[in-house]
Specification:
This protein is of the alpha/beta class. It is about 20% helix and about 15% strand. α1 packs across α6.
Length: about 220
């Protein structure tokens, strides 16, 4: 069973639904998808919202190993994404040498604001945490208490690990940053990190047509 946790924000509910459809429609193996919703984390996620926090799941993403009982592997991804390939190909990259595996972007945002006029924060390892393969048993530092009290930089810069050598690398095709990375038609996972095509301001962004097609495919299933 491929365990996938997706960050959920009510303002991007349609993005979560379309992403979920895109995963199931292409998966060759059983997939269990869990939204990480603050409304379902009463007593677990207790930290107050930070003014620089652009989504509900900015910090709760790091609860993935805890929610997996620190057993096996789990995949986390942001909701503002679209999967265009079999998720089992990503799942098969799991490597027991590592505690977590990510696409190691060298990403320095150009803008100061992004979707819904949210602040665009800049820090080392930006967007590494937007797709993470967790080797849960090796992530036991990420207790609910730690996630509730650690700083944003501690979490997103993986300072909860003993060594940088514990971070494995995923091929770039599994986290293509729309609007930053050179345009390409052969990506496995695209990330609308500045803003998705479900926002009017980004309706014509790269991979917008694919996202709208996926939404129509999802809705056609409901109407059939």
């Amino acid at each position: 069973m491929i365990r996938v946790f997706i960050g959920y924000d009510p303002r991007e509910a349609i993005a979560f639904s379309v992403l979920t459809h895109s995963i199931h429609a292409r998966a060759s193996q059983p997939v269990a998808i869990t939204p990480i919703m603050l409304s379902q984390l009463n007593g677990v996620m207790t930290r107050e919202r930070n003014p620089l926090q652009s989504t509900d799941f900015s910090f709760s993403r790091f609860l993935t190993p805890y929610l997996s009982n620190f057993a096996g592997w789990s995949l986390f991804m942001d909701c503002d994404m679209l999967v265009l390939d079999d998720i089992d190909k990503l799942w098969s990259l799991r490597d027991e040498r590592y505690a977590v595996m990510v696409v190691k972007h060298e990403h320095v945002p150009r803008e100061d604001r992004k979707f819904l006029n949210q602040a665009q924060t800049k820090y080392q390892k930006k967007n590494w945490s937007s797709v993470m393969l967790f080797n849960n048993a090796k992530c036991q530092t990420l207790t609910k208490d730690y996630v509730n009290h650690a700083s944003g930089l501690e979490l997103h810069q993986f300072k909860w690990l003993d060594s940088e050598n514990s971070i494995g690398e995923i091929p770039h095709q599994w986290n293509h940053l729309v609007g930053y990375d050179p345009p390409s038609k052969n990506m496995s996972l695209v990330h609308y990190t500045i803003g998705g095509p479900y926002f009017n301001a980004y309706a014509d962004c790269e991979y917008a047509a694919q996202w709208h097609h996926e939404k129509e495919q999802m809705l056609s299933c409901l109407q059939s």
